[in-house]
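Recap from last week: sequence in, structure out.
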Amino acid sequence: MKAVETVLRNRRPHWVGDGFPVRTLFSHATAGGAISPFLLLHYAGPHEFPPATHPRGVEEHPHRGFETVTIVYQGELEHRDSAGNHGSIGPGDVQWMTAGAGVLHEEFHSQRFAESGGTLEMVQLWVNLPARVKMTPPRYQELRAAEIPTVDLPAGAGTARVIAGDLQGAKGPAQTFTPVYLWDLRLKNGGTTELSLPDGYAAAVVVQRGQLVLNDAESLKPMDVALFRRSGDRITIAAEEDATALLLSGEPIDEPVAAHGPFVMNTHEEIRQAIDDYQAGRFGRMRAEA
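Predicted structure tokens:
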């Protein structure tokens, strides 16, 4: 059994740009290597936006050395980047962007969502890259809800969408540089499930709605994050009411982490190089909208 190491309680909300009211549920600063290869998780919303003429969001900004994973539950987002990628994702869709050697991108509410208004709810997870691939070319994966398999958990406990990794023979569509499991759980009141995970991997459960009990001992409420010890190969989750949660697990990247804003490298020298490269325009340029 993977024992719960600690529980991080919900954080105060803050705004990212003018379109994303987020809580930073964990970060490398708060969790350190305990959750490697994961670096940070923002939970945005649920937040009601009135109709607007212009989309809200975050203007052009750089990244290097890691990946961003955006899961939309409600609303619709639009993405553009300096590698020429442009797309929209809506409820159930996932965007997996590898910044790698460096990319500029922007994230806004879609024009359709801006004009209609409505509820926005999403998660953005940052996944570290090992030193050997930090300078890989940028990559963009747009994973539609229809291509993400859903499995029924034993004993009618609920369902799991398999975004990355595998569960009960279903394999998630996300391509990853290191082994990562990312499961989107829907648990029924009174249901209990046991999930197998590799011994030695980091793991966390992030509660979005409802109340859960982990390993018959630890109670979690919405916005709580349970971090597990690496040793052990399974966890149990019991739902005390209908609940939604994310389970993330991965092979740790036990390398130094040097982080500065949108750059995550291994040394401070590499951070300075990233800043120099960005300022010199080496991350490419955003293409003008058609």
